[in-house]
Design a protein that fits this description.
The protein is mostly helical and 437 residues long. The chain has one domain: Hydantoin permease (Orthogonal Bundle), CATH 1.10.4160. The chain contains 17 helices and two strands. The chain has a two-stranded antiparallel ribbon. Strand 1 and strand 2 form a beta hairpin. Helix 12 packs across helix 13. The chain is globular. This is Divalent metal cation transporter. Keywords: Membrane, Transmembrane, Transmembrane helix. It comes from SAR86 cluster bacterium.
Length: 437
């Protein structure tokens, strides 16, 4: 058993789950949806994007606090929530666990949208292969990597992708300041005035659900923490506290990477795509539309720079998102008593689901070959699920011993975010059922 590090420098060496989660977030939310939000609304919803990026990591950290302290999985923890429960094969599962299990369906729709976006960029890179064939290739390679790989392999692959992506987007955003699309201070201040263009409510809500840490990534993060070894403490209180500090350091890394990987794309969309009136994307072609951000700033040669970048970033999201599904769905099946648990049950399920998720992602795309719509479906569901996770964070951390509980200020912020998320859920339902005139 590894002893928990106690200094900041030592904790930095144990960062890892944040890298995988960033790989999952920075593709779909950052490169796909956030620039489209900028294209649709200009700078008006800059405050909304920042709220999405910075409010959810606190929930992520507090759920992870409980998982690390108890060495339970996410779903084992949520099975302790009050309310109706099922009891199958000796496994109790709360109604909240079943509700979240339903969310696998729209989440797979989002994976289909990702596979389609990967395929679009792959087709632009190598046109001889059709988009449909690229979907199959992307899903097959995802399965193959996950079938052969381990947590350590995944962490190393995504570390390189995330680092390269973050550096490049910052360079492009800085380069924009020497062009006619340079961003002014008044535009930034205008984006912090809390205005909300209701005609784009569905897109804004999907962006909130899919940029930053969605409830799916919050859930997946806890499994990466367990696999990284953050819960190896034998109930020693000092060790528990030390590992919680490691996790909190890792969460701050998530905030940093996700912000620098997302904000530049929103700014590019607001400054370039909005000016060119490229929302909605012509013919629904998201990659071709986003390509304009790079070619307008750097010139036509940037096409051959952006397309491989988009391909690998989106593929990293498909890979890390599928990897998260292998853990979460396995835990669903076991925690709910749908599958009896034996010695190697969990590892076997992970291998099987690593094949099933890419397969169903491809099917989702072929049934509805529009990546934007598929991503909107998943993003809106993700926004609806956030209040449940927030309630779980408040309830579960209250069950910990007093010296392991979060500070009063942290609890207060969780309550405030919960109220905002409930209001958002009501807004989602109203926009979809009644609509805004």
């Amino acid at each position: 058993m590894i002893k928990a590090p106690t200094s900041f420098i030592q904790r930095i060496k144990f960062i890892g789950p944040s890298i995988i989660v960033t790989g999952s977030v920075v593709g779909s939310g950052s490169i796909a949806l956030s620039p489209l939000l900028g294209a649709a609304t200009g700078f008006a919803l800059l405050w909304w994007l920042l709220l999405s990026l910075w409010s959810k990591p606190l929930i992520q950290a507090e759920i992870s606090r409980y998982v690390i302290a108890t060495n339970q999985t996410f779903l084992e923890s949520f099975s302790d929530m009050p309310g109706p429960k099922t009891n199958l094969k000796g496994k109790q599962a709360s109604w909240l666990v079943w509700f979240m299990f339903i969310g696998v369906i729209p989440s797979i729709a989002g994976m289909g949208g990702l596979a389609g976006a990967v395929a679009e960029s792959g087709h632009l890179m190598i046109p001889i292969l059709s988009t449909e064939l690229w979907v199959l290739i992307a899903c097959f390679v995802t399965w193959f990597i996950l079938y052969l790989g381990t947590y350590q392999t995944l962490e190393k692959i995504l570390l390189g992708m995330v680092f390269f992506f973050s550096v490049v987007t910052l360079i492009i955003a800085i380069s924009m300041q020497s062009t006619p699309y340079a961003i002014s201070g008044s535009q930034i201040l205008g984006g912090l005035t809390f205005s909300f263009p209701f005609e784009h409510a569905a897109l804004a809500l999907a962006v909130f659900g899919f940029t930053g840490i969605s409830y799916g990534e919050i859930m997946a993060y806890t499994y990466w923490c367990l696999e990284k070894g953050y819960a190896e403490h034998n109930d020693d209180q000092q060790e528990v506290k030390a590992w919680i500090k490691v996790m909190q350091t890792d969460v701050w890394a998530t905030v940093f990477f996700v912000t620098i990987g997302t904000l530049p794309f929103f700014l590019l969309g607001a400054a370039v795509l909005n000016t060119l009136s490229l929302y909605p994307p012509p013919d629904g072609d998201i990659i071709q539309t986003l390509l304009n951000m790079f070619t307008t700033i750097l010139g036509t040669w940037a096409k051959w720079f952006f397309i491989p970048l988009a391909f690998f970033v989106l593929f990293s999201t498909l890979l890390s998102g599928t990897a998260a599904f292998t853990r979460t769905i396995s835990d669903y099946l076991i925690s709910m008593g749908l599958v009896g648990e034996q010695v190697n049950t969990r590892s076997s399920l992970i291998k099987i689901i690593a094949f099933i998720i890419p397969l169903f992602s491809a099917i989702a795309y072929f049934l509805l070959p529009n990546p934007i719509i598929l991503l909107l479906i998943a993003g809106i569901w993700a926004a609806l699920g956030l209040p449940i996770i927030n309630i779980g964070a408040l309830y579960l951390t209250s069950k910990l011993s007093r010296d392991l509980q979060p500070k009063l200020l942290t609890k207060l912020i969780l309550w405030i975010t919960l109220i905002l998320q409930i209001l958002m859920a009501i807004l989602i339902l109203f926009s979809q059922i009644v609509g805004f005139d």
